[in-house]
Amino acid sequence: MVSSTIVDPIFDEKKMCSGVTTSTEVKSMSPDSTVVENGVSVGGVPTLQLMDPTPLSLGNDGSSKAYFPVKRSRFSFQTPAVPMRSPSALKLRNQNQANGSAVRSSLGKRLPPGTPPTLSSAIATTSYDGRVQLQIMAQPEEQHRARYQTEGSRGAIKDRKGNGFPAVKLDGYDKPATLQIFIGSDQGKVSPHMFYQACKVTGKSSTPCLEKKVEGTIVIEIEFEPSKEMVISCDCVGILKERNVDVEQRFPFHHAASSRKKSTRCRLIFRTTIMNSEGVQETLQISSLPILCTQPPGQPEISKKSLSECFSRGGQELFIVGKNFLKDTKVIVQEETSQGELLWEVKAEILKDYLQQNHLICVLPAYKDENIMKPVDCKVAVWSGGKLSEPHHLTYLPNNQNGEKNHNRFVGYA
């Protein structure tokens, strides 16, 4: 009988270490018993032996004789050597990865067909097959005063020209579809705005629309009509300012709900669902340019000022009472010719601690020539929020060597 070496994969590690089996000729053995001829077996426990790869040799009597098993460590802690890459190969690999990522990002993000999107999903503007595209034909106005719940309607959002309304077109599609409009964040990934909602604006000639809530956000729905070339004029959409109580209910765990710094800009998010060429529903979405939802600053005005005359060396404080003085306010002193040509212009230093919306204090600058011998008529104006107030007269006088008069008296203007 030809005997063979048996390797049992199931073993007890502790028993294997305590029990030693050596053999020069091993017959068949079962997991329960070990039969060894001309050898020693301790414990009768089957052990896992890693055999030397040298093949078995046959003896003179026809029995197979195995070489002495070579024990090797169970685990190897040596770190495999990593082949060194040349700098040029590594650079080429990085370039290929960069090119691949650029190609992938240019394709845009789109949901798999048939996947229902949420209001925060990243959705492409073009269909998967490239045949249908959602386009904005007229962008909304840059500034639209949002209305509060306690006041009346502020009207619908107009376009940039101020004569019409935002327009959206579904290009490459001629079947009935519904356009959904909601107010989204002003930048970054599209998500519902925390402090502003869309509101329905009704009028005699307004486009019919529906208002409903999706995930706590108001959504305006308007139907596309093939007879109108799949173009919708959004003349029924306004902006509503949310109350802080409503914001906390919509976003109870969001840190921005209790933050003092609140975003005053938003975007119109347009979304529609189509049936693509494969008969599967697909959603398209596009965002408008940002809209400022607060009241624009008015033109600054000067009602009264404390000085109408000052000495040519400057340094006197000028008190100005008026309105619409913002943080970027500047006081400008100018000298012009009788024909209106600008001869000299300088900015007065504003005392920031005394700058308020309806008054300010500034230090008048010195005239360009402090040694004037006769009075020089100049003008003073307030610049704020990109707008300039009406100029008021200011006269520079020659420096008084004997003493200065008190000019700190208010001068009224109609």
Provide structural commentary.
There is one protein chain. 8% of the residues lie in helices and 32% in strands. It has 414 residues and is mainly β. Strands 18, 19, 20, 21, 22, 23, 24, 25, 26 and 27 form a ten-stranded mixed β-sheet that branches. Strand 22 and strand 23 form a beta hairpin. The longest helix has 20 residues, at 87-106. The radius of gyration is 42 Å and the shape is elongated. The model is unreliable at 1-58, 86-92, 96-108 and 402-414 (pLDDT under 50).
Helices and strands in order, then pairings?
Elements: H1 13-18, E1 21-22, E2 25-26, E3 36-37, E4 40-41, E5 57-58, E6 64-65, H2 87-106, E7 133-138, E8 167-171, E9 177-184, E10 196-200, E11 210-214, E12 217-224, E13 231-233, E14 237-241, H3 244-250, E15 265-275, E16 281-287, E17 291-292, E18 301-305, E19 309-311, E20 317-323, E21 330-336, E22 342-350, E23 359-363, E24 376-384, E25 387-388, E26 392-397, E27 411-412
Parallel strand pairs: 19-26
Antiparallel strand pairs: 1-4, 2-3, 5-6, 7-8, 8-13, 9-12, 9-15, 10-14, 11-12, 15-16, 15-17, 18-20, 18-27, 20-23, 21-22, 21-24, 22-23, 24-25, 24-26
How many DSSP H or I helices? 3
Supply the helix-strand structural class. Answer: mainly beta
The helix fraction, in percent, is: under 10%
Could you name the ranges where pLDDT drops below 50 across 5 or more consecutive residues? 1-58, 86-92, 96-108, 402-414
- Secondary-structure element order, N to C: HEEEEEEHEEEEEEEEHEEEEEEEEEEEEE
Beta percentage is 25-35%
What coarse outline follows from CA principal-axis ratios? elongated
The whole-angstrom Rg is 42 Å
Please, what is the average pLDDT? 77
Task: Tally the beta strands.
Answer: 27
